[in-house]
Amino acid sequence: MRSLRIQPATLAIFLARAVSGGLLLGVACTTQAQVSGNAALTSDYVWRGSSQTREEPAVQAGLKYAHPSGLYASVWGSNVRFKPYNGAHSEFDLAAGWSGKLAADWALDLYLLRYQYPSAHTDLNWTELNASLTWRGNYWVALGQSTDAMASGTSGTYALLGARFPFSEGWRMEATVARYVLDRAYARSYTHGNAGIVWTFKPPFEARLTLHATDSAARKLFPGMAGTRVEFAIQASF
User: Fold this and answer.
1) Which of 55, 156, 187, 214 is the least buried, fewest Cβ under 10 Å from its Cβ?
2) Nearest-CA neighbor of 58 among 46, 42, 70?
3) Where would I find the H helices in the chain?
């Protein structure tokens, strides 16, 4: 798979200029801007197939500010506990980007994501450029590109296909399959996937049960933290 050629620093400058320009042009309609959030309690924080909490529970929450132009900024946080231990207790994901409709059935989300681990003994922070394309709200493809994947100093390209299948009021199934193409100087590329069922029992509250699985390359890269695992979460959006 050919890597995206846009450098994160270049996109950061573009987004900063776009945000400032959008705010200057949209002062009159800032009252239409939206602030949304989410919160979750999960039995295991699983990221790209591997546990980020040594298979222990996590408390997570996020906030998003969206401008009518489609520009937005968000922050999301979770507790973490890596293996081997490196001092990291929390993760904060800072994002800035644009999302909106391309056509009646198509939507695009383009954003720069910064992973921050404030208490880590070593520098674990890294940046990734992401894009996702959604069709009819139920099928999507996503790409992530970084020149410092997982703070390794090497490149990585992440590709994902996802789908959701509503089958009754309040119930749906969701599934994804993804490939993380890593520089061999760092680690072997790996594949992972998940399938889950989601129950909206009292909007905006949902319960989610997800089965995660990875290949042997992921188990070698994340010993003891990758493989097959089940995650249960209760979440809410507001």
Assistant:
1) 55
2) 42
3) 8-25, 216-221
Give residue-wise pLDDT tens across range 104-140.
999 999 999 999 999 999 999 999 999 999 999 999 9
β-pair type (71-79, 58-66):
antiparallel
Q: Hey, what are 91's tokens?
A: 């993760």
* Euclidean distance between CA atoms 137 and 155, whole angstroms: 30
Report the 3 state secondary structure along 80-147: CCCCCCCCCCEEEEEEEEEEEECCCCEEEEEEEEEEECCCCCCCCCEEEEEEEEEECCCEEEEEEEEC
Strands 34-42 and 58-66: antiparallel
More confidently predicted of 12 and 100: 100
Q: pTM score > 0.90 for this model?
A: no
pLDDT by residue (tens digit) across 5-31? Answer: 344 444 444 444 544 444 334 444 445
Domain ranges of the chain: 8-24+36-237
**233 residue type, one letter:** A
Counted residue by residue, the chain has a size of: 238
